[in-house]
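User: Hi! I'm working on a homework problem where we have to compare a predicted structure to a textbook description. Could you give me the structure for the chain below?
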Amino acid sequence: MSAISRRNLLKNTLAVGAGLGLGLPDAMAETHTKAKHNFKFCLNTSTIREQNLGLVGEIETAAKAGYDAIEIWVNTVEKYKAQGGSLKDIKKRAADLGITIEDAIGFSKWIVDDATEREKALEQNKREMAMLAEIGCKRIAAPPFGATTGQVLNLQAVAERYGKLLEVSDNYGVIPQLEMWGFSTNLHLVGEVLFVASESGHPKACVLTDVYHLHKGGSSFNSLKTINGSSVQMFHMNDYPGQPPRESINDGDRILPGDGIAPMTQILRDLNSKNTPIVLSLELFNKEYWKMDALVAATLGLSKMKASVAKATA
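Assistant: Happy to help. Predicted structure tokens:
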């Protein structure tokens, strides 16, 4: 087990498990309450994906763990709908639990050079955005899916394609966030997503970055200083260990915020200094967390995020 210390994981798990019904320790909760920041705490359901809770179970788990919001996956919504679930019921259930649905993770080939594939992608996005609008979801991720290998695309052309995706979204009120993927041939640098967002020409253009992807893609963490506050609405939270090296590290190596070597305090201070609401969404793909009880994993993740924010804003 290279990415996570077994001893630390066990200690964290036991601590959270013991306090599930009681919340955070008083001293920690007091620190978090007093901290001044512009963040909202969100659970990306990738973090508990292999526990297979289903859409309703994921929303209920996020609420019980104490999150403000949830970031879902499009395929989970589609499965719920295919099984006869009511989208309006999801919207009401989330609202009743005090959970906002901030974003959905989807995969369409909006970015590719093939015009036919792009048209299919836009039709896919129309269906997905219509569905997401029904449950009150505010955004959908727009990663460079379909262009992660092969040739480097012309960024001006990519900007025009992102602009068309944004125009489609105007009809549904679900904003596509231009997502940076550190492992991708295209859109793996902060400068690239900022160029595409800027040159799209659309007022709602925004970018979605990530601690792990900043590291994997090779961008300096100082690059976050160059992102205008209105251009970043969400930020994926995670951390990474010292090993494996950047060249071979992958999604499964992501660990909880504060458990790795990322400059977390600097990252959060730079984000907070933008003085704009930002949703911090815990996004992990680590098998060790998938082995845990979903509520324990979610609660531990929230505690780690809040502790990192408290340290950065003290």
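For your comparison, note the following. Residues 43 and 70 are 5 Å apart (CA to CA). The beta strands are 39-44, 69-73, 100-105, 139-142, 175-179, 207-210, 232-237, 278-282. Good luck with the assignment!
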